[in-house]
Amino acid sequence: AQSVTQLDSQVPVFEEAPVELRCNYSSSVSVYLFWYVQYPNQGLQLLLKYLSGSTLVKGINGFEAEFNKSQTSFHLRKPSVHISDTAEYFCAVTMYSSASKIIFGSGTRLSIRP
Amino acid sequence: GAVVSQHPSRVICKSGTSVKIECRSLDFQATTMFWYRQFPKQSLMLMATSNEGSKATYEQGVEKDKFLINHASLTLSTLTVTSAHPEDSSFYICSAMRENIQYFGAGTRLSVL
Questions:
Q1: Contacts of B103 in chain A (CB under 8 A)
Q2: Of A43, A94, A105, which has the smallest distance from its Cβ to B43's Cβ?
Q3: Residue of chain A whose Cα is closest to the Cα of B33
């Protein structure tokens, strides 16, 4: 079975500071990895994805994530955050063999302080 | 590309009435769509998988007769909450799959009085 762990439920950061949101996964098979962002009262927006190839993936809004197979991690980073980045962030995985089954982490609330 | 539209964004209804929520893939065809429910400060809970032209597959504990799903075309799936009660009040989100990636709608906030 697959599982996703987001180690921090809340991350407060000052504006223009760097941020890292941690995500670890567990799976006995190969997986696709995703980060989604959810703004208040909205659906989920795809930030970035790792399907194959380069382990460093760049997404929208200046975010990037690095797939580390040995540590089974897919941490999300941004070098300088903005007030508008305040949102809930979800890490997720799907299996190669059954991409319709998506497993979400519990989410990390990123709050940006001026 | 890969835009999913969900309508309405918010609905308030009286207890006992039925509410229909639409989910459309605007720029691609989706044989598979998904319906989720999200409780406050929690992650998404999969309710059912909607397959075009066939019956939906419901997750354990989800009442089929309460949450009716229809996927009559490759771009439209609907969720009907029948005889809604206050405990059905929640945030409902749909998604559509394209090339192994799920794209989500903006969600529907249902409030049952």
A1: 46
A2: A105
A3: A100
Amino acid at residue number B37: R
Surface of A (67-106) touching B: CB under 8 A: 90, 94, 99-100, 102, 104-106
Contacts of B104 in chain A (CB under 8 A): 36, 43-46
Residue B86, classed as helix, strand or coil, is helix
Helices (H), B33-102: none
| pLDDT tens, residue by residue, B23-72 | 999 999 998 999 999 988 888 999 999 988 888 999 999 999 999 999 98
Q: If you search the block for the tokens 């229909």, which residue do you land on?
A: B20
Query: What pLDDT, in 10s, does the model give residues A51-105?
Result: 988 999 999 999 999 999 999 999 999 999 999 999 999 999 998 777 778 999 9
3-state secondary structure string across A4-30: EECCCCEEEEECCCCEEECCEEECCCC
Half-sphere exposure of A36 (CA within 13 A, CB side): 24
- Tokens of residue B72, six digits: 């009559």
How far is A19 from A11, CA to CA, in rounded Å? Answer: 8
Residues of B in contact with A90 (CB under 8 A): 43-44
Euclidean distance between CA atoms B36 and A90, whole angstroms: 14
Distance from CA of B85 to the nearest CA of A (A): 21
Give the length of chain B.
113
